[in-house]
Specification:
The protein is 41% helix and 16% strand. The chain is α+β, with helices and mostly antiparallel strands and 293 residues long.
Length: 293
């Protein structure tokens, strides 16, 4: 069973590990996940790797070159180490402050997905932001924490969503369609504060552009309006929360920014085709009780 490591409570980062035994015949097996964990150990060097895929995003500039005494790569550097590949990494400047997010994962299906998406292997590359990594790691961890009720198909879907998201970011990096930093600042603000829709004036000031120009650029870069983007974030969060059977729909509505449960239910049904209660009953398989939210 998955369990927290000692001392992991009440921290602003997550780390969970499931055993140390590799399963050579596995098609898909998540062995460990870390989300924004501080880098504690210096100069981690594994000449023979770890026997599985180690996929790691460095939120701060890391040292990935053993010969470099200082940071060798930019922040938001991602690297996919395959089974058996030599691994080296360390913090760039300061221990226990610089963050990284990671997953240990194994199996033939994982290798197939990496190859199908043509992701760079053992070659560090820079992402425009950490949203794809954090959203999908969080979704996988939430699903795994259901224990015996976790669904391997859902986990595989989350991993494939991660791989497709990373492929799109790699393709953008190889083209001229790189998202401008001002718009990335706005998106990070929306990701961090999706429970409310910040005033457009506030976002325009953050992006240092007019309201109309911001709206036009945001839609062009991300394919939706600002409000549509926030709604997608809210609905994705609500969908995950419905797996927590102790949470009533009213509590979920409040947690994702809706003071009116009927407005929340209407938007959820518009997004997923069923009400929150129907989703929990039919998809999650839990009927709940007769209490009103």
């Amino acid at each position: 069973m998955w369990g927290e490591l000692p001392g992991d409570h009440d921290r602003d980062w997550q780390r969970q590990w499931f055993g140390h035994e590799l399963i050579p015949e596995a098609a898909f097996n998540i062995r460990g996940i870390g989300i924004r964990e501080p880098l504690f150990n210096p100069d981690v060097h594994r000449p023979l790797g770890t026997g599985d895929w180690l996929i790691m995003l460095f939120h701060s500039p890391p040292r990935l070159d053993r010969l470099s005494p200082i940071a060798s790569h930019e922040p938001m550097t991602l690297i996919l180490w395959p089974p058996g590949a030599e691994q080296f990494y360390s913090w760039g400047e300061t221990a226990e402050i610089e963050r990284h997010s990671w997953m240990h994962i194994e199996g033939s299906w994982v290798t197939e997905q990496v190859n199908n998406m043509e992701l760079p292997v053992s070659e560090p590359f820079t992402l425009p932001d950490d949203s794809v990594m954090l959203e999908n790691l969080s979704a996988m961890l939430t699903e795994i924490q259901l224990g015996v009720d976790s669904d391997p198909v859902i986990l595989k879907n989350h991993f494939e969503n991660w791989a497709r998201g990373i492929r799109r970011q790699v393709q953008h990096a190889d083209s001229t369609a790189i998202v401008p930093p001002p718009l990335l600042r706005v998106r990070r603000q929306l990701d961090a504060d999706y429970r409310r829709i910040p005033p457009l004036d506030e976002l325009a000031e953050l992006a240092a552009m007019s309201r109309s120009h911001l709206c036009h650029r945001f839609r062009k870069c991300f394919g939706s309006s600002i409000s549509e983007y926030v709604i997608r974030k809210r609905m994705a969060a609500a969908q995950r929360m419905l797996y927590e059977v102790n949470l009533r729909p009213g509590e979920i509505a409040d947690a994702v920014g809706y003071t009116d449960i009927f407005q929340f239910s209407k938007q959820f049904k518009k997004t997923f085709g069923v009400s929150p209660s129907e989703y929990r009953k039919n998809i999650v398989g839990y009927a709940g009780n007769s209490r009103r939210p």
